[in-house]
Amino acid sequence: MPRKQWVFHGRVQGVGFRATAQSIARQQELTGWVRNKDDGSVEIEAEGKGDDLEAFLQEIKDGPSPFIKIDKIDEQAFEEEEGHKKFKIVY
């Protein structure tokens, strides 16, 4: 199953981004995690079907919240699975 990591830069901390990502990931039946980084960005790792990963990313980019402002997204794709059981917020 494909796995991707994204780092979102912009106004993404303190605006409900992690909870929004978790909600969208669960709707898309993805597994993985989301966490704040010390530099003010947010990192997501998700596993699932390729189409579901793309739909997840598009929904986040479409901005379900007016408070979230994404300036840049770094993306990495991996072939191997991590075997996540659910999608969680990492503190």
Secondary-structure map with pairings?
Elements: E1 3-11, H1 17-27, E2 31-36, E3 42-47, H2 50-61, E4 69-78, E5 87-90
Parallel strand pairs: 2-5
Antiparallel strand pairs: 1-3, 1-4, 2-3
Helix pairs in contact: 1-2
Structure, described:
It is built from 2 helices and 5 strands; from the N terminus they run E-H-E-E-H-E-E. The chain has 91 residues and is of the alpha+beta class. The protein has a 5-stranded mixed beta sheet, covered by helices on one side. Strand 2 (31-36) and strand 3 (42-47) form a beta hairpin. Helix 1 packs antiparallel against helix 2 (50-61). It is globular and about 30 Å long. The protein starts with a strand and ends with a strand. The model has no long low-confidence stretch (mean pLDDT 95). InterPro entries: Acylphosphatase, Acylphosphatase-like_dom, Acylphosphatase-like_dom_sf, Acylphosphatase_CS. Pfam families: Acylphosphatase (PF00708).
CATH class: Alpha Beta
Question: How is the largest sheet built, in terms of strand order?
Answer: 4-1-3-2-5
The share of residues in extended strands comes to: 35-45%
The radius of gyration over CA amounts to: 12 Å
Mean pLDDT: 95
Helix-strand makeup class: alpha+beta
